[in-house]
Specification:
The chain has 183 residues and is mainly α. It has a domain of 122 residues: Up-down Bundle (Ferritin). Helices cover 66% and strands 0% of the residues. It is built from five helices and no strands. Helix 1 packs antiparallel against helix 5, helix 2 runs antiparallel to helix 3 and helix 3 packs antiparallel against helix 5. The chain is globular, with a radius of gyration of 19 Å. The chain starts with a helix and ends in a 16-residue tail after the last helix. The relative contact order is 0.15.
Length: 183
């Protein structure tokens, strides 16, 4: 038996040819999920810019730059797709200007721990949105796009989790011990 992930990917790739040449319009669920995810990616870019303006930690800077690159590529891809499909783009926050982390007052600045954990929350929410988009997709091109976005997020989340573990920033819930001492 082949790897289930490879099998899933092969099915998506082979079935994506079914949409070629068809003018299947997006349904309202596909539109809403694409529009919402696009908005989230644009706003995540602003968060990453703020983070880059406030941290001096080289590992966190690299992480934020990698996240920025991923969000930029996904939002650019979605923007082209939405425009091609005739979907109006939402208003999003403008880019933040560059500033020196040393100029940001301590009471305003997020700590590196807060930046990493806030980024993790945003990635987790994005993964859920990708899964929802995949589940709602009728068109194979849209389903494939969600699978690709989700794969990119999963790879990034592994790097993020590794740094959080190394730095002691990983938030771990308490162990669960069922009643009656069953282990």
């Amino acid at each position: 038996m082949s790897n289930p992930f490879e099998a899933f990917w092969d099915i998506l790739k082979s079935s994506s040819d079914n949409d070629k040449g068809q003018e299947t319009p997006m349904h309202i669920g596909e539109v809403m999920t694409c529009w919402t995810y696009f908005t989230a990616m644009k706003e995540m870019l602003r968060f990453e810019e703020v983070g880059l303006n406030t941290t001096t930690d080289s590992d966190v800077v690299k992480l934020l730059k990698d996240a920025y690159k991923m969000c930029k590529e996904q939002s650019d891809r979605l923007e082209k797709f939405l425009i091609k499909e005739g979907v109006p783009l939402p208003h999003t926050s403008p880019p933040k200007p560059d500033s020196s982390p040393l100029d940001v007052p301590q009471g305003v600045k997020m700590t590196d721990d807060e930046l990493a954990n806030s980024l993790a929350i945003k990635v987790a929410a994005s993964l859920v949105e990708c899964a929802r988009g995949q589940a709602q997709a009728i068109r194979n091109d849209i389903g494939m796009m969600w699978a690709e976005f989700q794969a990119e997020l999963l790879v990034f989340s592994t790097t993020l989790r590794t740094l959080k573990k190394q730095r002691g920033w990983l938030k771990i819930p308490p162990a669960y011990h069922p009643a009656g001492g069953i282990k």
